[in-house]
Amino acid sequence: YEDPLDLMDEIDELKKEKDATILAHFYVDGDIQDIADFAGDSLKLARDATQVETSTIVFCGVHFMAESAKILNRKKRVLLPDLNAGCSLAESCQYEPLKNYQEKLRAEGHDFLTVAYINTTAAVKSLCDWIVTSGNAREIIEKIPEDKEILFVPDQHLGRYLSEVTGRKMILWPGACMVHEVFSLQDLNRAKRNNPESQVIAHPECPQNILEVSDFIGGTEKMRQYVKSIEKPTTFLVATEAMMIHPLEKLAPQHTYVPVPGIITSTGETCACNRCPHMALNTLQKIRNCLRDGKPEIEWQPYFQKAYDVLERSLLQ
Ligand code: 13P
For ligand 1, what atom is nearest to the CA of residue 45? Predict the structure, then answer.
């Protein structure tokens, strides 16, 4: 056992010694978000990574996020505390199957652009025309000429939602996030009955049946802005990764936040299924170790250049 406070001190020292900056996604442990130099959603973190002045970035998130940070910052050393921190969405859409599917669509006469959620590997990004996050997806899709079809990968739920709000027809890849897909409508409705004055805030990675009963739909940064805009103390049922409650409580402590389905298992215990097991691989120990040892590191790969072009155009311009 190592005392978290000692670890935090050690991390602070190592950060100076190794000339490092820590970035953390809103889905990692609250302690890690608190010691980070930048905490944010996928879009802000990708942009923040380009503003880092130190020679090393420690990315507390999942692999595709650290990989994107490396792609946008070729000269920097990018460390990921645990290389096994993957993503069920990125996993669901691989390079060869996507390339084959694009070829099949072209052979059938489809004239389309491929839009990828940022939750994809660099190899998949290199096959795409635009990269979106939940924060900028609508804006980018609205820029795509009306005469083009859109192939949206890999999140079918986000794609369906974007198709609804933009009015653009989309060909959807059948991927889904393992955390957002398991929310049960029955549990959510029960939570609503138990909290009659509550509002449901949901990430657009949730399936349609959850979004239909939500009062607000938005990515993690948009959720923060929404709860901040409401002054009256309110109970929010939060349909996204459970750690998101940490930044919401910090920003708008007047409210009560209830994870969905968190408190409402049949045994009355807190359900862990709304925690992303990959995000949870980030620990203070592993952050200390990776700073101390300079690894695991995301190494530059030749195919990153193509992914750079599309990422830069999509997120930084
Ligand atoms: P945002 O950070 O865009 O809200 O998306 C969450 C997510 O999918 C992280 O993997």
Answer: 2
DSSP helix/strand/coil, 224: helix
- What integer pLDDT is reported at residue 263 of this predicted model? 43
Residue 293 lies in a domain: yes
pLDDT at 317: 85
CATH number at residue 56: 3.40.50.10800
Assess if residue 220 is contained within a domain. yes
Residue 310 maps to a domain: no
In this structure, the answer to whether residues 59 and 144 fall within a common structural domain is no
pLDDT at 187: 86
Q: Is 282 left (phi over 0), alpha (psi -120 to 50) or beta?
A: beta
The pLDDT score that the predictor gives to residue 183 is 87
Q: Residue 62 CA: which ligand 1 atom is closest? A: 10
Alpha carbon distance 13, 17 (integer Å): 6
Max distance between CA atoms of the chain, in angstroms, equals 61
Q: What is the mean pLDDT of residues 16-28?
A: 98
**pLDDT digit string, tens, across residues 54-83:** 999 999 999 999 999 999 999 999 999 999
User: Ligand 1: does its nearest atom lie under 6 Å from the Cβ of 220?
Assistant: yes
